[in-house]
Amino acid sequence: MIIRSKAPLRLGLAGGGSDVSPYSDLYGGNVLNATINLAAYCTIEPMKRPVVQVNAADAGVQVEVPLGTGPLSSGALLIDGVYNRVVRDFGPVPAPGFAITTYNDAPAGSGLGTSSTMVVCILKCFAEWMDIPLGDYELARLAYEIERKDLLLSGGKQDQYAAAFGGFNFMEFLPSDLVIVNPLRIKDWIVLELEGSLLLYFTGRSREGAAIIEKQQQATRRGDARAVEAMHRIKQSAVEMKLALLQGDMATFARILGAAWEDKKKMADAITNPQIQQAFDVALAAGAISGKVSGAGGGGFIMLMVPPQKREAVREALRTLPGQVVPFQFTQTGAVAWKLSS
Asked: pLDDT tens digits, residue range 36-56?
């Protein structure tokens, strides 16, 4: 038997950062995001030997370790975290050992939620193997707890819920880790227009989001008025962008995207840098209207709003830089898993 899973990466359209504690605990957060056809993947193959073979291309780990009664420590942090939590909460896996393979369509630190999506993907694979009945909310919440509480990795809450639910979602983040996911029914022509108007540009530089997020958290803790007010506006931008998206108002969508980026840059110095600014300058000069970095900032992917008739001109201008334009489409499906007969 072989068990596989797949979970989609996401674009953070608006409100990103307001899902991070302590801001979400103090003020509540709103995030608008959408999943795309780039994904994380996991395969588990049961084995008769009491070992775990790890091939984690996304983490650069390829190792075989004994599988005993203690915690798994293979060096692949996300795999270890998911396995140890699953065994703790649901009991031993149904085989003496197993091989696990993971990989991702985007590099870590790209701003598309790769790490959190991978946790959801691995957890979904174990749940399928062990017949653990996890709904979308349970899957996302457990993935969040594994990443943020068990492994103590910095970040917010939106990525796990985006990967579990899929599609366009308006999310509300409340105290005590309460999350409400509101799936949006976007008309087909609006989705097509948005796909034709958004250009996804990878800067070629993955960023270390944890340090940027920590600076944002510090600003909230010390009551930095400039940073907190900027985050208030970022949070409100998710509400306004949701309305613009539902109405197909691309001009307002583009305006909100650009304004939110200006506010985001006030949260921490490392959110932008000369390479990111150069990409914006080149794209805007070629006809782009606005844009923002997806994720914490500092690198990764930039979303650019471009009139479709200017799309090729902007693409050609960006080809003069070290990064690359990455084609994508929006998807409606969240994390899935299935079994195969070996």
From this structure: 999 999 999 999 999 999 999
pTM of the predicted model as reported, rounded to 2 decimal places: 0.93
Q: Is 249 a catalytic residue?
A: no
Q: 10-33 pLDDT, tens per residue?
A: 999 999 989 998 899 999 999 999
Please compute the mean of the pLDDT values over residues 126-151 and round it to a whole number.
97
Q: Which of 58, 80, 159, 263 is catalytic?
A: 159
CA nearest neighbour of 304 among 291, 323, 315, 316: 291
For the chain, domains (ranges, CATH) are: 2-186 (3.30.230.10), 188-325 (3.30.70.890)
Q: Which long-range contacts (CB under 8 A, 24 or more apart) does 69-73 make?
A: none
